[in-house]
Design goal:
Layout: H1 8-19, E1 35-39, E2 45-50, E3 53-64, E4 75-82, H2 97-110, E5 122-124, E6 128-140, H3 145-159, E7 161-162, E8 165-168, E9 171-174, E10 183-184, E11 192-199, E12 204-207, H4 211-216, E13 219-225, E14 231-237, H5 244-278, H6 308-318, H7 347-387, E15 390-392, E16 401-403, H8 408-438
Parallel strand pairs: 4-6
Antiparallel strand pairs: 1-2, 2-3, 3-6, 5-6, 7-10, 8-9, 11-12, 11-13, 13-14, 15-16
Keywords: Cytoplasm, Exosome, Nucleus, RNA-binding, rRNA processing
GO molecular function, one term: mRNA 3'-UTR AU-rich region binding
Organism: Stercorarius parasiticus (Parasitic jaeger)
């Protein structure tokens, strides 16, 4: 990720705020941003908002052969994508160090913690098992991606329902949701990540750092824990040295935050299940607040139509009288006309004048063509006379001299003929265009 670096003034401002126990968004040092969960129309689809950080989660499944070393266990696959839509610093289709670190941390949080019973995903041992795929897409980046991704992942897995399956001999039948109700996944616990940012080599501590605070921090500590206070995974990065008391203090804060988030997830799942059973409206479109423009809601205003005629008469009487109407069009300049209310159309007159002009031009063009033809005939007659050889005979001498005409007159005649042809062609093209316009 190639983010725009902060200036020295911004870095000093953020560090000074951390020293004074203040944050840019008005939170306290140990406060968590608001978490909002909204579900899609299908099972296994949800959006989690952690402040302005948004993550979309989608779970899917398919029947595949199991792994050779684990023939009775299903397969879990996790994938997190960082697109330029979330932040301009992210590059599409490139495995950055941040993306690799986040994917490994999610796998350790959800797979290595054994929160999902993989043996319940087995259909036929050694032949067919369910492969559960969790896709996470970062929609907006405002810091603390791993916490939002872990919450979205566990919520989508709890909300997901796989198709029911029956096995008769070697035949496996997969039922549609209309034939049989889908089956939820077997989830033992909900591991949730909580991030801590350290400043000045661990002197100051902030919970749930924002995007600007992450640029200035010296290191980060991520703890994944469930509501039973069982630590699932822990990771420290940034090259800072933490003492035992700091880690214990972070674990106590994590236990409180995880209990609150787990309760929020359970309430959101219960409300969604209740709405689906009652047949109410659900999905992303229903989670949009009605105060926004995208809700397509407008307050109706009452209109009184009892005295419409009286008001219309008053408006007409108070209005200015109409301007004078001219019976004939006003021609300011030749070739123009004025058309309006109460004025007759004069385009027909203009068309007749155009036709008269066209006829006059046709007569002129015909006259010029006849003159050109006369000139051509005269030139040809002169050529024939000049081309005849001149014979000089003398009775005393027997020699005969033949004088041939020069080549210069031919060139001049050819030039004059080409000019006349061009003028005749131009006149013919003008007549053709005017005829088309008249039709």
């Amino acid at each position: 990720m190639k983010a725009t670096p902060l200036s020295n003034c911004e870095r000093r401002f953020i560090l000074r705020a951390v020293e004074e126990r203040k944050r840019l968004d008005g939170r306290q040092c140990y406060d968590y941003r608001n978490v909002r969960i909204s579900f899609g129309a299908d099972y296994g689809c949800c959006i989690v908002e952690l402040g302005k950080t948004r993550v979309l989660a989608q779970v899917s499944c398919e029947l595949v052969p199991p792994k050779p070393n684990r023939p009775t266990e299903g397969i879990l696959f996790f994938n997190l994508e960082l697109s330029p839509m979330a932040a301009p610093g992210f590059e599409p289709g490139r495995q950055t160090d941040l993306l690799v670190k986040l994917n490994r941390l999610i796998e350790r949080c959800l797979r290595n913690s054994k929160c999902i019973d993989t043996e319940s995903l087995c259909v036929v041992a050694g032949e067919k098992v369910w492969q559960i795929r969790l896709d996470l897409h970062l929609l907006n980046h405002d810091g603390n991606i791993i916490d939002a991704a872990s919450i979205a992942g566990i919520v989508a897995l709890c909300h997901f329902r796989r198709p029911d399956v029956s096995v008769q001999g070697e035949e496996v039948t997969v039922y549609t949701p209309e034939e049989r109700d889908p089956v939820p996944l077997s989830i033992h616990h909900m591991p949730i990540c909580v991030s801590f940012a350290f400043f000045q080599q661990g002197t100051y501590l902030l919970v749930d750092p924002s995007e600007r605070e992450e640029r200035v921090m010296d290191g980060v500590l991520v703890i994944a824990m469930n509501k039973h206070r069982e630590i699932c995974t822990m990771q420290s990065s940034g090259g800072i040295m933490l003492i035992k008391d700091q880690v214990l203090r972070c674990s106590k804060i994590t236990a409180v935050k995880v209990a609150e988030i787990t309760e929020l997830i359970q309430k959101a799942l219960e409300n969604d299940q209740k709405v689906r059973k009652e047949g109410g409206k659900f999905g992303f479109a229903e989670s949009i607040p009605n105060q926004k423009i995208t809700a397509f809601k407008m307050e109706s205003a009452a209109v009184d139509t009892n005295h419409v005629e009286e008001q219309a008469e008053e408006i007409i009487t108070k209005a200015d009288p109409p301007s004078e109407a001219f019976a004939k069009p006003i021609l300011h300049t030749p070739g123009t006309a004025q058309i309006g209310e109460g004025i007759e159309n004069c385009w027909g007159d203009l068309e007749e004048s155009d036709r008269e002009e066209a006829v006059e031009e046709e007569d002129e063009s015909e006259a010029t063509a006849l003159e050109c033809q006369k000139m051509e005939t005269e030139d040809t007659m002169k050529e024939t006379k000049k081309d005849e050889p001149i014979v000089l005979s003398d009775s005393e001498e027997e020699e005969v001299v033949i004088l041939e005409p020069q080549e210069l007159p031919k060139k001049t005649r050819a030039r004059t003929n080409s000019k006349q042809e061009n003028t005749s062609k131009k006149a013919f093209n003008k007549r053709r265009k005017k005829k088309r316009a008249a039709h």
